[in-house]
Amino acid sequence: MKRIAPTLLSILFSTVLFGQFSDPMVINPGFNTLEKTVAFDIGNDGRTDLIALVDNEIRWLAPLEDQPDRYILKQALPAGPSFAKPIWMSDLDHDGDADILTIIQQLGTYYLAWYTYDGAGFFKPFELIEALPGKPTTWATGNLDPDPS
Questions:
Q1: Domain that residue 75 falls in
Q2: Total of domains in the chain
Q3: Is the Cβ–Cβ distance between 60 and 42 less than 8 Å?
Q4: Is residue 59 part of a domain?
Q5: What string of pLDDT tens digits covers the 149 residues of the chain?
Q6: Where are the beta strands (DSSP E) in 1-148?
């Protein structure tokens, strides 16, 4: 009986205090290779968009306005010759909307790449920001100095 009480309390607290997840939702069963997904409100419209690294493309999946549980392909961005798998979302240019950041490999060199969101519903082709030494796997963005940008 002593072992049942902690388990019962654990179940009780995890469901009552922390809520429950919704049922899983299949967004697109047609992907061949789904390597990474990031959820973010790209257009600042209060709806969660998905950015996914799928089949050597970065795909922007947006919810339908009248059916927020259904997603459509908004834009497919070419991945270039080769990708290192991480993708991130950040407002790198401080214009109030999210940009896509990733690491791209071209001819054996890794680069930090940036897809700028134009604010009108599309991402521009990627720009290479910086060559990176070695084989980077992650990085972070942030305001590291005291200026506001």
A1: 29-132
A2: 1
A3: yes
A4: yes
A5: 444 444 444 444 444 455 565 666 666 656 667 777 888 888 788 888 888 888 778 888 888 888 877 888 899 887 665 665 678 888 888 888 889 988 888 788 888 888 999 888 899 988 888 887 877 777 777 777 777 66
A6: 34-40, 49-54, 57-63, 71-78, 82-90, 99-106, 109-115, 127-132
